[in-house]
Amino acid sequence: MSGGIFVCYRKNHLNGRRGTALAVEAFIDRLRNHFGSGKVFADTDLIAGDDFPPVLRGWLGNSEVVLVFVHDEWLADVVERRDDDKKEDWVRSEVRTALETGKHVVPVLLDRASLPTELDLITKKLPDLADFGNKQFWRIPFGEWERRGGELIRLLEGRVASKEMPAPERPDPAHVRSTWPPAIGVLLGLVGPWALVRLLVPDVELRSVWLVALAAALVFPLLIPLGTLSIVYEIRRRLDESDRHLAKLSHDQKTNITVGLFVAGMGIIVLFISNLVPWQVQLVVLAVIVWFTVLEGDRWLRDRRLGDLWPYVRLAAHPAAVRGALAHVERFMEERRPLLTMLQREQVEFVLGQVEWAVDRLHDLRALSWWAWLRRSSPWLPAVHLLLLAAVVGSAVAALAENGVEHAGLLGGAVAAALLCYFVTVDRAYRLQRWRRKVVAEAAPDEVEKLRLVLAEISIPPAAQEESAE
Predict the structure, then answer these.
(1) pLDDT for 117-147, tens place per residue?
(2) Considering the domain 4-156, what is its CATH architecture?
(3) Which of 45, 363, 414, 429 yields a CA-CA distance of 20 to 30 A from 82?
(4) Is 349 within 8 Å of 448 (Cβ atoms)?
C-alpha cells in the first residue's frame, strides 16, 4: 500500500465548461478531507506559473490509484479532441499513461454514463485506451453522492497509504516492584530510633523514657492514613462520581490542578512545622521537598504527558487513565463533527484498542490476592508506612534493651496498635483499589461500544459490493 490518488476528469469541453466538473471538484475536496491534501492530486492544485505538463506527470507517477470520471459524452469528447491536432487531450494522455504504467485505474461513471467497451475504443481509433474498456467501474448516481461516494472512499483506503499508527507500549502492570525501598524503610525504622536517642540523649537513665515516648508517639502518624482511607472507603461512591467529572477535564487542566494541590499541600506543611521545630529542621524538610520535586516531579510530568498524549501510545492500566482516555475520545469526535478523516478514524480506533487492553489488565489486577497486590504496589508509600511501623517496633525493642522493662505493657500496646493500624490501612487500600478497578472495568466496555457507534455515524461507512459491468 503506497502512493495516493490521481483524479482525471474533463473540466472543459471544446464549446465550454462541463457541468459535471463542479460535482467532481466537490468530491475532490471530500477526498482531500479524508485522506489529506498530500494524498490527492488533481489539476485544481495547479497555481499560476506552474509548468503543468511535468507537474501532472509527476503527480501521476506518485499515485497508486487513478480515478477517471466518465460523463455521458466522455467518449465523444475524446474523439473530438483526437481530431484536433492543435491541442493535446490531457484526459486521454493521463488515462494512457496510467494504463501503460500499471496504475490501479478505476472508471467512475457519473449518473447514467456508460463505460466504453474495448471494441468501442478500437473502433473510434483509440487503441491506446482499449484496456480502459475492460476495467471494473464504480457508478455514482447524482442523487447518491453521499452514500456511493463514501463507499468509494472506503474502497480506496486499501490502496492509499495512510500514516501508520505508532506501536502501542503495553508494559506489564502486574510486575513485582522493587523491594529495596521497603527494605531500607524497615531497616531505618528498626535501627534509627535507638541510634538517634543514643546520639541525642547522653543520660542513660532517660534513654528508656525517650524510647517509650517515641514508640507511643509514632503510633499517631499511623492513625492518619488509617483514618483517611477509612473515610475515603465509606464515601467511595460519591468520590467515584467526582472522578467521573474530573476525567472529562483536559490533560492540561488536570495537570494544573494536581500541581496546584501539591504546592498548596507543601505550603501547609511548611506553615505547620514552622512553629513546632527549629529552623535547622525546617531547612532539612524544605531540602527534602525540593529534592523530591526536582527528581520525581519532572519524571512524573513527563510520564503523565506521554501517558495522556493523543493517541495514547502508552495508556496506564489505571481507572483514572481509562476514564480520561474515553472522555478524550468523546471530545475528539465531538470537535471534528460532522465527518472524521481516515487518519482521525484510525486514531480513535487505536485509542479504543488501548482502552480495551487496559480494561483487560484491570480485570487481571482486580483478581490479585492481598499479598500479590501489595508486592505490585508503588514501593515508596509502602516504604514510608513500613518505616513508621518499624520505628515503633524498633523503639519498643530498644526501650526494653535500655532497662525499660517496667513499661513493657505500654510498649506491647504501642506495637500491637501499630501493627493493627498498618494491616487495617493496607486492607482498606486494597479493597478500595479493587472496588475502583471493578467499577471502571465493568462500565468501560459499554462506553467503548457507544463511542464506536458514534464513530460509525461520523466516519465513512463500510463499502458496498462493486457493481458488475454493464
Answers:
(1) 999 999 999 999 999 999 999 999 988 988 8
(2) 3-Layer(aba) Sandwich (3.40)
(3) 45
(4) no
